[in-house]
Amino acid sequence: MKLPLARTLYLPVMIAALATPSAMAQSSSHQTPQAAPQPSEGNHGQVIFSRSTDENGETTTEAGPAAAQMAKAPTADDAEREAVTFVAFDMDVRLHTAEQSIAVRALVTVRNDGKVPLAHIPLQISSSLNWERVRVLGHDVNFPVATLNSDADHTGQLHEAAVPLSTPLGPGQSIQLDVTYSGTIAQSAQRLIAIGTPNEVALRSDGDGISVPFTGLRGFGNVAWYPVSSVPVILGDGARLFDEMGEHKLRIAGAQFRLRLTVEFPHGHAPTIALINGHPAPLAVTNVDSVGPEINGIATASTENTTLGFEAPSLFAATLTPHSATNTTLWTLPIDEAAVQSWTTAAGAVTPFLQGWLGKQPRSQLVVLDLPDPDDAPFETGAMLATSIREAPPEQLQNVLAHALTHAWMQSPRAWLSEGVAHFMGTLWVEQKRGRTKALEELEATRPALALAEPSSPGVSTGQPLAQAISPIYYRTKATYVFWMLRDLAGDAALSAALRAYDPAEDMSKGYLHDQGPGTFEKLLEQASVRRDLSWFFADWVDADKGLPDLTIDSVFPTTAEAGNWLVAVNISNSGYAAAEVPVTVRSYTNSVMQRVVVPGHGKTVQRILILGKPIQVQMNDGTVPETEASVHVTKLDSLGSNSPAPSQPGTPRP
Question: N or C: which end of the chain has fewer CB within 10 A?
Fold first, then answer.
């Protein structure tokens, strides 16, 4: 008979296993956060909760005196949830992979960014986890816990603790909370199944979970394995869930983050790779071979104090085999070993291209993590890509790695730089391999969605300035267009020089999202460019969201000049609010002349172009400047000198 396994978790035991969190408090003006008192030697401490598993595998839990009280209705409201900003995480995390369980003790520092004092702090975790204990200023507090319906977690629900404060937390003030929670995290597709997604497809899309061979916790929006404070959102309610995910990343950007990880694993199944927020964390594995196969092994890893960028904290641990490629480490399952060479070849093919644009050496290695199921949805954070490593056509692998490897070079805390440059490099790679027309066609395919999202005018909506964008349509799609336009404004050499000179640490040190005057990247580009003043462009396209330009060729007036030359006057108007510099090209039967012209928002301009030979066509824009409608305008000139617009075709090659 298998003997019952009993485990009673005492605070000192947990601390000994997980290491005591260090205090990372930020003081408020009238409340001084304090770290929780540490137990002295010989003190067996207070029971937080106890669990026992009988011979039939049934588990029972008994809560200690600091346990939460389930409430019938939430105590917090949305205004209070939106007011809470996390400014520091100091976490001890223990995974028991065979039981799919997690136990966490964390010191979290929160700030009241609202306009009124907070009498309690709402803290949320996945509904598969349970709050065990909360200490405020060194004292245990009793707190109600409510279950919220929210698809920000894969279970479709969150457990929200409303932590009471003896003295309300005033606007701008911070306080530190010492929290403990635990539970299981298994794959759950409840939120997708609830909206009619087939079970198999849903599970492959929501693959977060803890298991012996592979643990993947992608963070808020997928699984809330760390404390959060968010407004409940439901899938299917437009883009609200994705906006809330972006808002979460934006609000914790700049927060200090530290984590110590302990993985308890069955004999012979030690993890070989751990990644914390996309960064490899060296694993130290305790050798238990001499003790016996019935004893679990222990692996530990940690990250020192780091500053979060625009990211949801993530945690991965897996048993995989490493393979080296150019600026890349591939971690694969045995079944996918045969595909390693194809990926290695692809990494080697795109690296010289990226070096030409971004510099000789990347800031880190790209880590590619092999997902357990070949149909699992890929996930990317920083210089880490979790995807199925399988055979694919070389062109497809090169396209994937042109984007992913860019993150090894460009690691900005600003989403529009990090994601925008990666997508920009991906389209430049298409241009190099398949031509400019194909690259512009790929841009055009994304423009209608961007035009739909953009405000029709700044008065209708503030939109999303790139510097503070929370939606991928902005920090990916619009940012990609911005870099194509900057390429034309400043030139390839200047843009490359600015990208090489960019230092994310220096950028962060100047205050994330609190820049005074021109941003770091703008200054670098102006220094590298012959055209020193790009303030008008950044003002309309990065620092504010004025929507998209809406350009029109109002009229064209060709007149003859000397020696067979013609002077063509092109009248252009912009009914949008964003200024734009666009190429204007005049073509004759034998020649073409292109000049660039700035068209102000809600303004008009006239461009006069001299060309040899009778003009037959005028084209404005070539697809590099996104507009509310078509991004290529062509006017054909008839034999009498009058003109008429021709159908626009996106991606027309540059003459």
Answer: N
